[in-house]
Every structure is written in structure tokens, then in C-alpha cells.
Amino acid sequence: MRFSRFVAFGKNFCCLSAAVTVSKFDRLYAFRLLHQNCRLWRAVVSSTSLPVLLAAALPLKFMAPPITDAEQLLDNPDMKAKMELLILRIQKEFCESLEAEETSGKKFSIDRWRRQNEEEGGGITCVLEGGEVLERAGVNITVMRAPLSPKLQESMRARGKTLPADKNFEFFAAGVSSVIHPRNPHVPTMHFNFRYFEVQDQHGQNKHSWFGGGADLTPYYLNTQDVVQFHAALKSACDKHGPDKYPLFKRSCDEYFLNAARGERRGVGGIFFDDMESPNPDSDFNFVRDCADAIIPSYLPIVRRRKHEAFTAEQREWQLLRRGRYVEFNLVYDRGTKFGFATPGARIESVLVSLPLTAKWLYKHDPQPGSPEYTLTDVLKNPRDWV
Amino acid sequence: MRFSRFVAFGKNFCCLSAAVTVSKFDRLYAFRLLHQNCRLWRAVVSSTSLPVLLAAALPLKFMAPPITDAEQLLDNPDMKAKMELLILRIQKEFCESLEAEETSGKKFSIDRWRRQNEEEGGGITCVLEGGEVLERAGVNITVMRAPLSPKLQESMRARGKTLPADKNFEFFAAGVSSVIHPRNPHVPTMHFNFRYFEVQDQHGQNKHSWFGGGADLTPYYLNTQDVVQFHAALKSACDKHGPDKYPLFKRSCDEYFLNAARGERRGVGGIFFDDMESPNPDSDFNFVRDCADAIIPSYLPIVRRRKHEAFTAEQREWQLLRRGRYVEFNLVYDRGTKFGFATPGARIESVLVSLPLTAKWLYKHDPQPGSPEYTLTDVLKNPRDWV
Question: What does the record note on quaternary structure (chains A, B) (predicted)?
């Protein structure tokens, strides 16, 4: 189902009857319109109970109505609900920050979808393609609950999860994932992802629950100022939760984002963590929230600073070749993409929003020693400490 | 090591002393020059033994000197030698046929390389990039012998090979592999690959030896005439070896070249076979040779017929989007690419010559029902019998 935001409906549409007669999601939209425009707002407030009103107001805060029934999310201490509200908020804030930088006036298109079996959940895929600043930007959330395929069970066991082989399992996953490919080669590509998993056995017992995520920067030209700023923002989010977090997760990031066959990292790193399953899930959640809140301050200043820098055709060509490497990493190594391809009925278009609009390959393209292109490849082969 | 063909040396270079004083491969090249140009040829013939002369003449027939010592290949009934001579010949013939179609005058660059441990063998990678007809064409051979990594052992066991878990194994592989990405969207992309494997235990005993290979066509627009011709050429090669071969391997091809997450094939198929390990290896070899010899008549007439057809910017755009799918298949599913990424010390640039020069992704690009683009996607989802 494709949703345009309320602006597309026109400012003057404010029919109360729509709010009470149409389907649930449409009703939420109608409330949204009412909230913005309508002189009948007081009438609605006075005729409706408070929980219904709050649930109706919820979508106003997000790119589209939540995947889970809005009324179920409100004031719900369950981690699944908390996580869904967090990722909905992060998606909205990040999309709006990016739109503010996009000079063409293009906005994210919003694609709210459900899995074929609607009870298994769905997602909200926000994509901006062909902008002046943003060549291809994707900011997605997914909230799903489905049987855990044998292949995925296997990969979880390989990572130390105790899942008896003779049982069936179901998993819940809620996550936000974003990759931004700007047009200007002086603006780095950026990726972040924060996710929460639960695995239950057939009796509904929680076997495991854990958080994972991270953020990393992929520049085409090395601007130390940018890289230091990016890492510093993530470090200060981590540091709130102990001095060990940033060094540990910075190193994990350098290890994870490795194109092993090439012996080079995807970019200049950031943070990466997985299987975060402490005795205190609330404290894990707070850590994830603080990291997610560090994304805008880590990246947006770089976009703002570099988006108008002049670039040559050769620099653009170099950017496309590096994007070829990005495609290699994402399709060959990335755990999220592999998870997508291994999940029966996965929505592959949402998984592959991470790919650039255009990528290029040339046989044995090696930059000249001493060139700015060479400087970048050198740092991809030999990760540095930035802060 | 990079070899230019003898033409680059100039027609007048014919110094006999070079042939007797320089290293082995250089000597072979010197003989080649002599063969072409030199009035001293008779003097060489009269002063050298026949086997040495034959070995020296061998590289003249190929893109570069063989990977295995040329003298060891001559009149050697061992399957490894027979296969290396076959793939050297196929590479040469196919490269020259393609060069004859390339209107820009560009020729294949020839990159003869060895593995880091030179005793493990190497390959000859022939690449033509940025031509008028051939946007990116790669025709590679590899001849290697190396320890079989645990990961590769695992994947062979999964395909039914009996390899005891507590032993070390070594493998030999010789193969030719080619992907041709033409510039004109009316000329289909074509791939073929023929390979021979041996796995030995640490006592040098052969545990298994088998052939694999195939050829498939990936059009951007469906021209039934082309597809029928392609399949017919492969079928007549197969039919020499029994009426069961083509139907079986045609079906295997449709099954193998499946982008499962998309529910669509990479193209309109062809033939695919693997683990061909009959009691009579010579008959298997003859089958492979006949299929390999069918490549030029299956594909080159299509290139010739379509290369000058006019195309629009929209058709080019569609071609790039389909090339994105080609990249997806090769990086996510293709067994050869996976083998490359899983082989320690693999030469990734040669593995990835299969990728197009440029590829593109757009979110949910669905062609209009009834359009030529839609006709293609329909046949990718529902494979047909062509001959």
C-alpha cells in the first residue's frame, strides 16, 4: 500500500464523517488531517475517548501509521512496543533532516507494506531517488514475526544461540536501517541500523532476545575532519554507557565491514555490535536509543558542509567504482542482506534499498600512489583510530 | 605479469640470441616472434630438438603461454593436460571472434598471472572494456592446484562427494569462463563456463574428478529468433551425446540461474551441468569440448545481427537495471563466484570480470504490462521450451 503524506490530500479536506466511517488506518489518517486543519477538532475531542484519541494522534508523529496496532503501542512496557516506537521516531526524524538538505525539493516516498501473511507484520520503506543532494537514500523500518527458517536457525546457532534442533521457533524482529548515497563524491555514504530480536519456542517461551546495530561511514575522499566528527558523535553516545563500549564496538566495526577477498574495509568504520543480550534489557535499549539519536549529529553536518563542493568527472567515476565495492560488500558479506535473502517471503526491494543508484566495475583499477584516491584505499586497508 | 601480443613488439624484432638466453616464457615469446618474422627460423629449426620446437610453437596458438609448462602439455593423455589445452584454445578462438565484431578496433588486454605461491598455478585473464560493441567482455582461464579449504570441502560434501572429515585434500581445477556485456541493449549478455576438477587426498590418490559447465543467454529485449538459435546450437552439441542431455541440462539451467528472492531467472537459459563424473572421463571430455565448440555459433550471429540496431535512452536505462539483477545473481547465488570468494588467495579481479561495467538499481521499478520490458520479465518468471 502506498501512502502519500497528508499534504497531498490538500489542506482543506476535513470531513468528520471520514473519521468515523472508513477503515482503521484511513481513520487514523483522517484524524491526522483533522489535527492539522480542521475547525471540527474540538468536536472530535469532546466525542471520543482519550486512548482512541492518543492512538489516532500517533501516526502524526511518524512517516506512516505504525505496523502494530497503534493502540497496542501506547504506554506498553513490552520491549517489542518500545522498540517499534523508537524506530518509527528515528525514521521520521532522519527523513526530515535529510529532506531539509535536499535542494531539489524532492521528498521521501513512503511505502507502507505488509508481508503476504499480514499477521506476520511488515514495514515502512522510505526512499528518495534522483535528488540533487541525495542520489539514493533509503530509511526503512521493519516489524515482523514469522517462523524461523532452518537456515536462519543454523546461522544463529553458529553465533552461540542455544536452539534445540528438534523444535520449531518463531522470531520477532524490529529494526530501522538506512543507507544514504549522496550524489557529490565529497559527501560520504552513510549507513546505520538498529534492531531488536526475540526468538520463541512453540510454547511462546522466550529463548533469546538481543539487540544489534551500528553506524559506519564510507567516504570517497578522505576528509579527516568529517571522519573524526562522525566517530566523536558515536563515541559520546557510547561513553554514556561506559568507557569500554566505543573502543570495543569501533573495533568490531572494522572487523565486520571487511571485504575479505579484497583485504579492505567498506569505509572508515564507526561502531558495530550484535547479540547484545545483557541481564538488563532496558539498559541495552537505552544504549541503542542513544546511539540512534547520535546519527543526525554525526552525519548531517558533513552533508551540509560538503554538498556544494565542486567535483570533476574523474571524481564522479571514482565514486562509482567505490560504489561497486559497496555492492560487493552488501551482497556478499552483509549479515542484514543475507538475513533478507534467507528469510522466506522477504521483501527484497526493501532489503536492496541499501544499494546505490549506480555502480561501476573496471578491471584492476588501481589509483596512482600519492593521489587522493590512493590515500583513501590506504586507510581502507589499514584502519585508524580517529578519536 | 602483463603480456602484450607479439604485434606490440614490432615486426622487425627477431634476435635469435634472445631465444636462447632469456627465461623460459620469454624464450617461448621469442620463438613466437621468430616464427612470425624471422629469416633465422630455419637456423632455429635445424639447431633444436622436435619436442622443444613444438612446445615453443604452442603459445602461438593461444592468448599467452600455457600455465603449465608447455612441454608437459604436449601429447599428454592426462585429463588435466587435455583440459588445459582445450580451454586455451577456446579462449583464443572466442576472443578473436569477438574482436572481429568490435568496431572500435579495441583488442582484448591479456593478463597472465600466477597465484602468490607460483606452484599453485594461475590464469590468463582477457578483458576488453569500453568498446563500441563490447562494453565489458571477459574471457578467462584458470589452471590451479591448491589445498581444499574446509569451507569448500563442506560445499562439496553437501553435493554428495565422499570426503572423510579427518583428512587434508588438494584440488586441481582447470576452467574457462566468460561473460560478455555488450553495449547495445538489443544484444544479449552471454555467459559460458567449462571446468574440470580433481580432488586428491594427501597420498595423491584421486578421490573424485568431474566436469561442469554450461552457457546461458541474458537478453534485455526478447527476440525469439535469437533465443531459439542460441538454444538450437547448444542442443545440437548435446544431441551428439544422446537425446537425454539437452532436455536435462536445459532444465538444470532454468533451475540454477534463479534469483530465488525475486522468483525470476537471470535470463532465458541455455544448458548447465555439474558433477559430471561418468565411468568414462574421455566421453565426458568430448561432451564438454563439443559444447564449448558450440559457443561461437550460438552467440556470434546474434551479436552480428543486432549490434547496429538503434536504441533509446530508455532502453539503455532498462539494460542497466537488468544488469543490476545480473550483479545480484552473480554475487548472491553464482557457484563460481562463491567458489572464488571462498578460495583463500583467490584473484578477485578475475572472478569479478563477470560483472558489468555499469549497473543500476531503482526502488520497485516495474515495467508496464504489455511493454517489451514486461514481455521479458514474464519469460524470466516462466521459462519456456525454445527448441
Answer: Homodimer.
